[in-house]
Amino acid sequence: MSSQSSGLRHWRERFSALFQDHEIFIRTHGHVRFLRISAVWQKRVALIAGLVLFAWAGVTLAVFVNQLLTSGERAEVAAKQAATAASEARIAKYRDRVAEIAADLDERQGQLEEWKKDYFGDEPLPTDAKSAAAADAPADPAAKPLETSAIDPRLPPEAQALARLEARQEAFSAHLLAAVKGRAAKAEVAVAQLGLDPTALVRNAAAGRGGPFIPFRGRPGQADALGKSFAALEGALFRMEVLERTLVAIPSGQPAHVLMLSSSYGYRSDPFTGAGAMHAGLDFPGPLGTPILAAAPGRVTFVGQKSGYGNVVEVDHGQGILTRYAHLSGFTSRVGEQVAAGQQIAKMGSTGRSTGSHLHFEVRLNGVAVNPRRFLEAKADVLEVKADARQRVGALAAAAPARRGAR
Ligand SMILES: [Zn+2]
């Protein structure tokens, strides 16, 4: 206590020592004046000066603090505004994305429904195709459903609902793909059993060869734009349709209800010259006027005379397949006419280089004569697949003009 009071006294003494009585001489115009400034006055002035300084410092500090606070508030308001703007932008982006996804899904749904209707009609897809799709999925990455994780989990509920819808759509697409592949596989086996190369047929068709082919509606590359699974589906549909249409186009119907000379295709001695010659067709001997029937559905492309063949009718079956009926005695069809399998197109005769009434029947694949025997001797199971395909392709052909008109 004593040390504290002595310390205080020490400071008071030091403070008092700063102020001592001063006497100042002031000379003005020859007069000398005495000015005495006492220590007490000095202390008072110093005190007032100190107070003023203190007050000024206080005001300055207050102003500074106020400014600090104001700028902080301003920054906070600016931050809030920025956050609101960002949130609005995000919501707008979500909304745009939702609208975009919805439009995309709508387009996909339209395409899926169209494919389903065109290729499977109103019948439900085979149920075994679903398990086949599941089993098939690992081997075919393109068939796997699209990743729906592209959609932000923080998205609004409507976007989540769209994601679920997309997943369901992908599942249906995979189901459809499996069904298409199943049908294509059947057609492929049948086509191969008829002696044709399925891979070459599809390749030729893809390259634009092989006669008229009505592909599914749509712009090229559209399926690509709809996603991997749609591109895979489109490819599978193309393959299925080529194989099925080829199957339908294969002339496996009897061109006349008479027995054929089964050994007549190939090299043999020419009945006129006796020299070895290629006989590019099958002969069907029978009575004059025997009805000649289209061996497959198609369009009559030639009715008239050809050197050596006499009276000839040719029918284009599409997929590069053409049948030629020769040595005819009469015609019952016109060029441009659409004919069904088994429909009469001509009458048997002996015109051209012929030794007697018979039908010369030729099948040409992309302009090259092939032995029609395998087609005519097609087994029941192959014919069953063919009949099935004919029904489907027929339904598709019937729907085609309307679709072409709509394009
Ligand atoms: Zn012949």
Automatic annotation (TrEMBL):
<dbReference type="Pfam" id="PF01551">
    <property type="entry name" value="Peptidase_M23"/>
</dbReference>
<dbReference type="InterPro" id="IPR011055">
    <property type="entry name" value="Dup_hybrid_motif"/>
</dbReference>
<feature type="compositionally biased region" description="Low complexity">
    <location>
        <begin position="130"/>
        <end position="145"/>
    </location>
</feature>
<feature type="domain" description="M23ase beta-sheet core">
    <location>
        <begin position="278"/>
        <end position="372"/>
    </location>
</feature>
<dbReference type="InterPro" id="IPR050570">
    <property type="entry name" value="Cell_wall_metabolism_enzyme"/>
</dbReference>
<feature type="region of interest" description="Disordered">
    <location>
        <begin position="130"/>
        <end position="153"/>
    </location>
</feature>
<keyword id="KW-0472">Membrane</keyword>
<dbReference type="InterPro" id="IPR016047">
    <property type="entry name" value="M23ase_b-sheet_dom"/>
</dbReference>
<feature type="transmembrane region" description="Helical">
    <location>
        <begin position="45"/>
        <end position="65"/>
    </location>
</feature>
<protein>
    <submittedName>
        <fullName>M23 family peptidase</fullName>
    </submittedName>
</protein>
<keyword id="KW-0812">Transmembrane</keyword>
<dbReference type="GO" id="GO:0004222">
    <property type="term" value="F:metalloendopeptidase activity"/>
</dbReference>
<keyword id="KW-1133">Transmembrane helix</keyword>
